[in-house]
Each structure stands twice: as structure tokens, then as C-alpha cells.
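Deliverable D2.4 — example input (C-alpha cells):
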């Protein structure tokens, strides 16, 4: 299987006409760029693709990815011009396809036909929640039914669907996030992104937080809730592409919400912890040494952050000592051996 690499191209937030309570695209993407002249934008796009092609290894599948806004919400002529530019590289085989990100209510049959014509292969939908109460509290501007309709439509037209969900939205409870996860799975999505909610300044959510109308999750609350959703995606065969936002100065400066720079690693570590705990419940390892075998490169999930998880396992199960070793196994498939 070839390695995969996205060639990200950020478009201004003008594609989205909505104002969700949590949204600050500049701070989320780390890209502060006003909409340029189309000719300038197309030139920037070509330069971005050309430079990426030079630097990404030859044996890596390359995909152009339009991020940073609701792509199908921008002016149609501009959208097609951007697609045409990218499609030239698809036709010559220099890139494998195009990925776009948009809102569920900015999708219909006509739009999907245009996207298919210009080499789009993957569509990411900002589903966020499948609970109408939560969507309304977030001023999301669409319903859960819109998300379900769009998700099924994307798959019906032959695209790969990635569902983006958010953890800790206003009024959202863990069961709501599980419901959202299961809905994304039911839509036949092949991928997912999990975004624990971060409260950025200069957003309605920030004001809600200061006034006490919204209580942000702590990092660890977000980790626990994200891990539950991640587990369900794993069991359903849905690949989780990303957990949390990319590290940036804005993320580090956020006063509230799950802004830990390594939150994705913490979520994965929690999954390991949960799976190891389930196995240890059925093994008497009290006062014994335990070897835990994980996939090569996964040791830090257990040994990182001051060995917090190992210490927790040792205390919970009365283990004398835990050694983390590697073996030929799958990710999130730890093998436990307790000394005789």
C-alpha cells in the first residue's frame, strides 16, 4: 500500500455564510488570508501543487485538499476555476485526486456532479453533531436530517466520505456524541475526524463561556469522550484521520476547552489503557511483573507523559512492575504476558 500525503490549499472562510458559535476559521486553521483576486489565487494554487510534487516522495500518493472553508459554498465560477486547475494535475497523473471539505447543507446532486467531473474523490462533511438540540444551540444552521441526507448522497455518487464530529459542543452529552459517531458509520463513511471543542476568543462561544452559559470540557474529559467515539470507529472499520486541531499559536493561546497540543496522542493512549484494563481484569497479575507488547512505534502511547498510564495500571491492578515491549501486532492490539 502506498503512503498518502495531502497537498493542503486553504481557502478563505467566505464559502460559509453561517456563523456557528464555536467558529473562528483564522484561529482554527492558523491561516489569515483574505480572498485574493482569482488569477492570483490560481497562481498560488499551481505553485503550491508544483512545490509539493517536488518535495513529496515519488512512491507517495498525492492528493490536493481544499481546506479552510466550505468549498461548495464559494462562488461557483471560482470553485470551478480552482477545480479545473487541480484537475490538470489529476489528468496527468501527478496527483491522484482532489479532497474538499464542506457543510452538509451545501451538497446536492448538481454540486456532486460538478465535483465528480473535476476529479474530486473525497468529500469531508462537517457533521459535528446529529442532535438537533445541539445543532440549534451551536447556531449551526442545518439539521441532523440534512447531514444524513448529504452523507448518503455523497456515498451514493461514489465519493469517499469523511465525517467530521465535535466533542463537547453546547448541550452535547456523551450519548449524543456516540449517536453522532454511529450515524457517520451508518452513512458508510470511510473516514472520520474527531475535534474536541476549543473555545477561541472573539467567538459567541467565548462569551457563553465567560457568562457561564457554557462549561468547556477539560482536556481529560475530552480525551475520555473522544476515545469512546474512536473505539466505535475502529470496530466499524472507519479510519480516523485526525484527532484535534493542528498545533498553532492560536490553539496554545486558547484559554478554555480541550487545547492540549498532543490531545490526539492522549486519546490513543486512553484506548490502549482501556483495552489493557479489560485484559487485566481477567488475569491475576497482582504483585507480579507484566510485559505489555505493542506495535513498533507505539510504546510512547504508554510510556509518555511521565508514565501516567503505566502508573495508573500498576496501582489499579496491584502490579509489581510493567515493561513495555514491541512485537508484530496491530495498532491498539496489546498483548499481555504476566510472569508465572
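Example output (designed residues):
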Amino acid at each position: 500500500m502506498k503512503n498518502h500525503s495531502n497537498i493542503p490549499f486553504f481557502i478563505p472562510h467566505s464559502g460559509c455564510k453561517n456563523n456557528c458559535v464555536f467558529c473562528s476559521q483564522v484561529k482554527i486553521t492558523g491561516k489569515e488570508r483574505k480572498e485574493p483576486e482569482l488569477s492570483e489565487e490560481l497562481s498560488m494554487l499551481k505553485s503550491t501543487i508544483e512545490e509539493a510534487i517536488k518535495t513529496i516522495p515519488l512512491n507517495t500518493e498525492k492528493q490536493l485538499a481544499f481546506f479552510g472553508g466550505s468549498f461548495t459554498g464559494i462562488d461557483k465560477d471560482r470553485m470551478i476555476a480552482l477545480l479545473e486547475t487541480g484537475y490538470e494535475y489529476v489528468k496527468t497523473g501527478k496527483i491522484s485526486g482532489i479532497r474538499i471539505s464542506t457543510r452538509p447543507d451545501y451538497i446536492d446532486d448538481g454540486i456532486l456532479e460538478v465535483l465528480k467531473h473535476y476529479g474530486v474523490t473525497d468529500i469531508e462533511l462537517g457533521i459535528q453533531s446529529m442532535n438537533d438540540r445541539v445543532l440549534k444551540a451551536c447556531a449551526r444552521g442545518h439539521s441532523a436530517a440534512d447531514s444524513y441526507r448529504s452523507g448518503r448522497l455523497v456515498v451514493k455518487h461514489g465519493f469517499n466520505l469523511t465525517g467530521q464530529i465535535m466533542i463537547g459542543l453546547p448541550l452535547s452529552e456523551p450519548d449524543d456524541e456516540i449517536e453522532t459517531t454511529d450515524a457517520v458509520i451508518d452513512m458508510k463513511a470511510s473516514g472520520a475526524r474527531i475535534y474536541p471543542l476549543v473555545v477561541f476568543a472573539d467567538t459567541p462561544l467565548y462569551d457563553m463561556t465567560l457568562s457561564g452559559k457554557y462549561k468547556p470540557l477539560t482536556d481529560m474529559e475530552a480525551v475520555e469522550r473522544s476515545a469512546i467515539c474512536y473505539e466505535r470507529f475502529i470496530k466499524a472499520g472507519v479510519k480516523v484521520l485526525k484527532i484535534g486541531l493542528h498545533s498553532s499559536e492560536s490553539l496554545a493561546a486558547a484559554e478554555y476547552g480541550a487545547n492540549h497540543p498532543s490531545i490526539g496522542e492522549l486519546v490513543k493512549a486512553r484506548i490502549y489503557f482501556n483495552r489493557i484494563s479489560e485484559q487485566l481484569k481477567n488475569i491475576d497479575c497482582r504483585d507480579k511483573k507484566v510485559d505489555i507488547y505493542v506495535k513498533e512505534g507505539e510504546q510512547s502511547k504508554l510510556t509518555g507523559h511521565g508514565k501516567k498510564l503505566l502508573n495508573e495500571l500498576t496501582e489499579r491492578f496491584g502490579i509489581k512492575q510493567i515493561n513495555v515491549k514491541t512485537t508484530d501486532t496491530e495498532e491498539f492490539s496489546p498483548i499481555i504476558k504476566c510472569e508465572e
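Confidence is low (pLDDT under 50) at residues 27-32.
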